[in-house]
Amino acid sequence: HGLPQKRTFPLGGLVENKVVSLLLVAEPESIFAMPDPTVPDSDIKALTTLCDLADRELVVNIGWAKHIPGFSLLSLADQMSLLQSGWMEILILRVVFRSLALEDKLVYAEDYIMDEEQSKLAGVLDLNNTILQLVKKYKTMRIDKEEFVVLKAISLANSDSMQIEDVEAVQSLQDVLHGALQDYESAQHTEDPRRAGKLIMTLPLLRQTAARAVQHFCSIKQEGRVPMHKLFLELLEAR
Amino acid sequence: KEKHKILHRLLQNSTSPVDL
Fold first, then answer.
1. So what's the pLDDT on residue A149?
2. In the prediction, which pLDDT does B13 show?
3. N or C: which end of chain B has fewer CB within 10 A?
4. For residue A2, which phi and psi values (nearest 5 degrees)?
5. What local confidence, expressed as pLDDT, does residue B15 receive?
């Protein structure tokens, strides 16, 4: 019929796009927050739960980063630099994606969903409202899992660390991921030729939100009332 | 770099949680 065969097959672009497939496979399972049922609800309990969850998420996400095609080819120092500047964006994007199905609630974990009241109690209402603004953007765009996994990898590769040794190698990682997003969009979202750009344009709000989150948890750290695990502390101190 | 011992160790470790 003169129709381009590959493009009309719904999964055509997906099968062709190796990077997207690898990222989908690498995507870690969600972990549980497991708030201590014997401790009464309080701001300290909520923050302790969030910090503990973040620490465990970080371990999983460092493992995930190693599965981003090309990431392990960077020097160890550059891998560290990217993670030290991009870790909070990755954690937030995961919360955002988990929260897409809900209204005004953030799914920090399947067993730890924060609504406005809980956010107030934990003293993170402003922060959670900014994260909800991101949720709203991606809801409006109807972001899919493929786009989410590529965008998350892009946010790490594009974390603008000042310490990068091999700038060209990081640039080529960015190019591979950006190319994967563009290929995916031109195969799967032919109705909107600007969709890849629209997704990239959500990253400034993500950067801003992550900076705010790091700042918030740094001041909590300074108050010293909330126990924090070593990896989380290490990365909070890396800014 | 000394300050980032855990990150360093996790990146060097060949088995990531995703593999397990």
1. 98
2. 83
3. C
4. 80, 5
5. 52
CB contact (8 A) between residue B4 and residue A76: no
Length of chain A: 239
Instruction: List chain B residues with CB under 8 Å of A62.
Output: 7, 10-11, 16
In whole angstroms, what separates CA B20 from the centre of its chain? 14
Query: Which residue bears the tokens 């309990």?
Result: A45
For chain A, residues with pLDDT lower than 50 are: 1-9, 12-14
**Closest to A209 (Cα-Cα) out of A144, A173, A155:** A155
For residues B1-20, give the mean pLDDT.
Answer: 71
**Cross-chain residue pair A80–B17, CB shorter than 8 Å:** no
Q: How many residues does chain B have?
A: 20
Burial class of A168 by CB neighbour count within 10 A (0 to 12, 13 to 18, 19+): exposed
**Position of tokens 């190693």?**
A66
Query: What distance in Å separates the CA atoms of residue A213 and residue A220, rounded to the nearest whole number?
Result: 11
- For chain B positions 1-20, those within 8 Å of chain A (CB to CB) are 1, 3-8, 10-12, 16-19
Give me the pLDDT at residue A15, please: 53
Contact A235 B7 (CB under 8 A): yes
Distance CA A160, CA A40 (A): 41
Given a contact cutoff of 8 angstroms between Cβ atoms, the answer to whether A12 and A185 are in contact is: no
CB within 8 Å of A152: residues ≥ 6 apart: A23, A90, A93, A94
